[in-house]
Write a structure and sequence with these properties.
The complex is a heterodimer of chains A (413) and B (662).
Chain A (H helix, E strand, L loop, with lengths): L14 E5 L3 H8 L4 E6 L4 H6 L4 E3 L9 H11 L3 E4 L5 H11 L4 H10 L1 H10 L7 E4 L2 H14 L11 E5 L9 E3 L2 H4 L9 E5 L4 E10 L2 E12 L3 E4 L3 H4 L2 H14 L5 E9 L5 E7 L7 H9 L3 H9 L5 H7 L10 E6 L14 H4 L4 E4 L21 E6 L2 H11 L7
Parallel strand pairs in A: 1-2, 1-4, 2-3
Antiparallel strand pairs in A: 5-8, 6-7, 6-8, 9-10, 9-12, 10-11, 11-14, 12-13, 14-16, 15-16
Helix pairs in contact in A: 1-12, 3-4, 4-5
Chain B lengths: L1 H13 L1 H16 L5 H17 L3 H15 L18 H5 L4 H18 L10 H14 L1 H5 L4 H7 L2 H16 L1 H17 L6 H15 L12 H9 L11 H9 L3 H18 L4 H11 L3 H8 L3 H9 L1 H11 L6 H12 L7 H9 L5 H11 L5 H14 L12 H13 L1 H14 L3 E4 L2 E4 L17 H20 L8 H9 L6 E4 L11 H12 L13 E8 L5 E14 L5 E6 L27 E4 H5 L2 E6 L12 H13 L7
Antiparallel strand pairs in B: 1-2, 3-8, 4-5, 4-8, 5-6, 6-7
Classes of the chains: A alpha+beta (413), B alpha+beta (662).
């Protein structure tokens, strides 16, 4: 029955390849008028075959001599552009697109976007404000940096340290993100996590931006407001943050120019300090984690993955784009937010959604599953949450308080 | 109609966001391609969950259910085919601790309601079928509908119970209480006709109906008259107990009665007992009262025929001792067991009466005592409970049921011994209850239930009659051990285990139509021909079956899908009142009346069945059979079995459980 609902494919428009497996992306493409193919590891093969999903088997390891092979295969199939869905496939997309679009600079650009230290230097060169950062190769480096930063801040012995942030060079989002305040905490870092990028802490309001770019221009710009980093986010942002939209837009335009981005999708993170100054955190060239795409669909009604296809496809017309994207903020039906649940107790036996959560008018649905193990592994870094709870409502302030409040509730008991 | 419309306004006005969520969730599910529908179901469940808990929520969902089903909520689940759903399974679904299980059952039931009301034309089920199905669902869930939440319910289900209760209330309101009661009463009578030993569940349901009749808020209309006999047989079978006065008052009334009045009371109870299979606690008071005084009144109170009376008078001391120990208001069912035991005349078998004397003075092991009191309480003593259980098993061998447990072989064996080897059964009960050990022999080697650790059942079964409760754990382990000793042999282990486990009369010839290694059908025609020639009187020289024989059937559901292998006993093969050759068999499931698909409806009454027997026409039975035993020296007349008949049976096999075994 649903087969008939699928859009017929338009042969005059582009043919895109997804790098990596994402059910939501495939579903969006299935319902859209562009031809597509999924390039994913062999474990996706059976599923794709069962459900008639166009599929090419490819295991994304490190780039190597065989990398040309997949680019060639896609070229022969008539694919116009490759879309990275995960951090790990960003440089593959760069390599493949440099072949498909005959533009060697794309590969270099992707490498820049994959390495957090390189990325910050490039931003600095482009005149974008960044915090203090350094690479660390071992624990010694971390302790030295922690001391140096706090020295710079004119802290005396015994004053509480300002924290520093540690992040893996090439991992997405909060994976491997640690906050370090004292030298003792440095001992907890496993050696295999090095090298890492260290950054000073910026006291300010952290937010993320999702920008769809086509023809070197921003076509749609969303501001995602973090309530608590790693826990909760909602879109569109509150009026207080949205009032910075013109400055934020200017920053993104600067970023696009600095990184020479002509098309596609970027997902940068910024801090805005109390005096209204913007600091660049990092930028990714792939869809954000934490289901912001899902939230956008709930808030605006457009499918963000289809937007992704449009912005990557070189055959997309400006008219199509104008028809597709709604007007930012004003067209939103409300604020959509989600909260990542971590169990708060050490031993849990079952999932129990708190009454006040489920009973709140903003509650939409959850994706939590019953616990598989009774003992909860202690969290050291910002790890993976156990599932998301979705909310939807008209008032940003209520949403923010609601999301914040979830942190004090037990979902697993 | 006016009332439901105003309710609809309520939810749409008070919680418009919920309706909006529901719309969105349905749209998202509807638009998703098949492969990602599963990811959209969550949204719909969470929204439906909140709606169903709100005032007027069931009504709202009923209106949306057609769109919900068309969007694909039931796809790839059993609920996609409402015509095959089994109402009794809804009990487990609605009591599940898993929210999604409760919700999908609730939504499916609301769908049936929409179909039944004519608002939703369904391609697979008619309005009448849907209505019928819903009345069944209500009947089997009556306990939840009328009782207050139990501790167990709170513990396992928590808030979810409210969903189930809201739903049932709504369904009952829409369908009408009078339909449910009617249905339920029929259901109770149907089960009682099979004369089960365990009747606690049935007593509970009868009590529920009685409560329902008393409740002025529930309009039963013209229904419920059929319940009077059921209710009175428990709570007021006779003149002196009519208003349920309590056992103490009743006893004091007996003490002042003259002989004719006592006689009147005695026959009143006996009639009620033999009518329903249920025994009133007052009956126990009467029986104990008359036991010491009058042989005549004793016989009257047991409702004995001349055969039973002969037996009673021959063993009067034993019977008095049995009554004194086993019959109490809490264990009144033992009276029915005793009465039928006397009618069966098994006391004339030399070993039975002495065995019962041994049972009377038996001291139980600590383990056995503990298990009995855990399940039945301390009043009367565990010894008395067990004795009462023994009387019931011997009186109603076909009333043994396996409860909710995977122990059909053990239940079958207990029933078979009670039926044709009662003193052996009594021996086993003593070993298990006193020594906490049962020893059997397998091809000369002894097997102790103590040494064999693992049985088939993972947990100790608890919902059983007293004899099964004591014996099943031992039998289960021994049966499993016998199976293990055949593990390295080629072919199906039942070939060797069944005769060694059940008794010498189990045929040493063995036929199976499934190849154990591949699971494929194997020599089907030979198998069927042999079965006809061994069991069918037209082709075996008109020889009635002498001893009950263990057999295995492939159980299928109402859509003919294979469910599992099941142990049964073939009891006899005979013509029914319409000259149809039928196989009469014992099924250790609690309710033998089952729909096996392909119009194979297992009958339990109305086709010359004795209480507790199930029956099917020979051909239909053969089409579900996969294992049977026979005597190789009595091969029958294989050549005279008509090939068309075998062909017809094969066809039935191949279109049902044999579908992917060809």
């Amino acid at each position: 029955m649903s087969e008939t609902k699928n859009r017929t494919k338009n042969p005059d428009k582009g043919y895109v390849a997804f790098l990596g497996w994402s059910l939501n992306a495939v579903e969006a493409a299935e319902k859209f008028d562009r031809r597509y193919v999924v390039v994913a590891p062999d474990w996706a093969e059976e599923y794709c075959e069962t459900h008639n999903i166009p599929y090419i088997k490819w295991n994304f390891e490190r780039l190597n001599d065989r990398s040309m092979e997949i680019a060639q295969t896609l070229k022969e199939k008539g694919v116009d552009v490759a879309i990275p869905l995960f951090e790990e496939t960003v440089e593959w997309a760069g390599a493949i697109n440099s072949v498909l679009l005959d533009n060697p600079k794309l590969f270099g650009q992707s490498l820049l976007l994959r390495d957090k230290a390189l990325m910050k230097r490039r931003a600095q060169l482009g005149g974008i404000r960044v915090g203090i950062f350094e690479e660390a190769h071992d624990k010694e480096d971390v302790i030295r940096f922690l001391k140096r930063v706090n020295q710079t801040l004119l802290k005396l012995d015994g004053d509480p340290n300002d924290p520093i942030h540690l992040k893996a060079f090439d991992k997405a989002g909060c994976l491997g993100h640690r906050v370090i305040r004292t030298p003792d905490e440095v001992d907890m870092i496993p050696d295999e996590e090095f090298p890492v990028l260290m950054e000073s802490h910026l006291d300010g309001w952290e937010f993320a931006v999702e920008a769809w770019v086509h023809d070197g221009k921003i076509q749609f710009l969303n501001i995602s407001e973090y309530v608590t980093l790693g826990y909760s986010v909602f879109v569109p942002a509150s009026p207080e943050l949205e009032k910075y939209r013109p400055q934020i837009k200017a920053q993104i335009e600067k970023l696009i120019k600095t990184f020479d981005i002509d098309f596609g999708f970027i997902h940068p993170e910024y801090f805005v300090t109390s005096d209204g100054e913007m600091y660049f955190g990092e930028v990714a060239y792939r869809p954000p984690g934490f289901k912001v795409f899902e939230l956008l669909e709930q808030a605006y009604g457009f499918n963000a993955y289809q937007g992704l296809i449009l912005s990557f496809d070189p055959k997309t017309s400006q008219e199509e784009i104008d028809d597709f994207f709604p007007e930012e903020v004003v067209d939103a039906k409300g604020h959509a937010g989600c909260f990542g649940v971590y169990p708060r107790r050490r031993v849990v036996s079952k999932l129990e959604i708190p009454d006040e959560t489920e009973g709140h008018a903003y509650f939409n649905y959850h994706e939590l599953t019953a616990p598989l193990e009774e003992t909860v592994t202690k969290r050291t870094a910002f790890g993976t949450h156990w599932g998301l709870v979705y909310f939807f409502g008209s008032d940003a302030e209520t949403m923010r308080d609601l999301l914040k409040h979830q942190e004090s509730l037990d979902f697993y008991v | 109609m006016v009332e439901t419309a105003s309710q609809a306004n309520t939810i749409e006005m008070t919680q418009p966001h919920l309706v909006e969520r529901l719309e969105d969730a349905i749209t998202a599910l509807d638009e998703a391609p098949d492969f990602s529908k599963a990811t959209k179901v969550r949204r719909l469940y969470d929204t439906a969950k909140r709606i169903i808990q709100s005032e007027g929520g069931c009504e709202l969902l009923e209106r949306y259910i057609e769109r919900i089903e068309r969007a694909g909520l039931f796809k790839n689940t059993d609920y996609a085919q409402p015509q095959i759903l089994v109402p009794s399974l809804s009990v487990h679904a609605l009591k599940s601790p898993d929210a999604d299980t409760v919700l999908i059952e609730a939504l499916s039931d609301l769908r049936l309601l929409a179909v039944a009301s004519g608002a939703y034309r369904h391609e697979a089920i008619s309005a009448e079928q849907a209505h019928h199905h819903l009345t069944h669902i209500l009947a089997v869930n009556l306990q939840m509908l009328f009782s207050v939440p139990s501790e167990a319910e709170r513990e396992t289900q928590g808030k979810l119970a409210k969903i189930s209760r809201n739903l049932l209330q709504y369904l009952a309101q829409r369908i009408g209480y009078e339909y449910i009661i009617e249905q339920l009463i029929d259901e109770i009578w149907r089960i009682l006709q099979q004369r089960p030993i365990q009747v606690d569940q049935i007593k509970q349901m009868v009590t529920q109906i009685a409560i329902c009749q008393q409740n002025p808020d529930i309009d039963l209309g013209q229904s419920g008259h059929g319940a009077d006999r059921l209710i009175s047989s428990l709570y007021g079978a006779t003149q002196a107990s009519r208003e349920d006065p309590g056992v103490a008052v009743y006893l004091s009334r007996l003490e002042t009665m003259d002989a004719p009045t006592l006689q009147y009371e005695a026959t009143g109870f006996a009639r009620a007992m033999h009518d329903t299979g249920l025994v009133s606690p007052y009956h126990a008071v009467l029986l104990r009262f008359v036991s010491d005084n009058s042989d005549h009144l004793l016989s009257e109170a047991l409702g004995l025929s001349s055969t039973g009376r002969d037996c009673l008078l021959s063993f009067i001391d034993l019977v008095r001792a049995l009554i004194d120990k086993a019959v109490h208001p809490e264990s009144a069912q033992a009276i029915y067991g005793l009465s039928l035991l006397l009618e069966r005349c098994i006391l004339y078998q030399p070993a039975v009466a002495p065995s019962l004397w041994r049972q009377l003075s038996l001291t139980l092991s600590a383990e056995a005592s503990q298990r009995l009191s855990l399940l039945f309480g301390d009043q009367p003593t565990p010894e008395a409970r067990l004795l009462g259980g023994v009387l019931c098993v011997l009186g109603l061998p076909l009333g043994v049921g396996q409860g909710n447990n995977p122990t059909c072989q053990s239940a079958r064996a207990i029933s078979m011994w009670a039926y044709s080897d009662p003193d052996y059964l009594l021996q086993l009960v003593v070993s298990a209850a006193r020594d906490n050990e049962v020893i059997m022999h397998f091809e000369g080697q002894s097997i102790s239930s103590r040494d064999s650790v693992a049985g088939i059942a993972k947990e100790l079964p608890m919902d059983l009659d007293p004899v099964s409760l004591i014996l099943v754990p031992h039998l289960d382990r021994i049966y499993a051990e016998m199976g293990r000793r055949c593990a390295d042999r080629e072919g199906d282990p039942h070939r060797w285990v069944n005769p060694e486990f059940h008794g010498w009369w189990c045929g040493r010839g063995f036929a199976i139509n499934v190849d154990v290694a591949t699971g494929k059908l194997h020599q089907l025609q030979d198998f069927l021909r042999k079965f006809y020639a061994s069991y069918h009187p037209f082709y075996n020289g008109n020889q009635p079956l002498i001893h009950p024989q263990p057999a295995g059937v492939a159980i299928t559901d109402s859509a003919m899908r294979f469910i599992g292998w099941h142990a049964i006993t073939i009891l006899r093969v005979a013509l029914d009142q319409e000259n149809v050759m039928r196989v009469y068999f014992y099924n250790p499931n609690n309710d033998s009346g089952q729909n096996w698909g392909d119009d194979i409806l297992v009958s339990t009454a109305g086709n010359s069945e004795r209480s507790g027997e199930a029956s099917l026409p020979f051909e239909q039975f053969a089409s579900r059979l996969y294992i049977f035993h026979f005597d190789p020296l009595e091969p029958g007349m294989m050549g005279s079995v008509p090939p068309e008949e075998l062909e017809a049976v094969s066809e039935r096999i191949i279109k049902s459980w044999g579908a992917n075994r060809v």
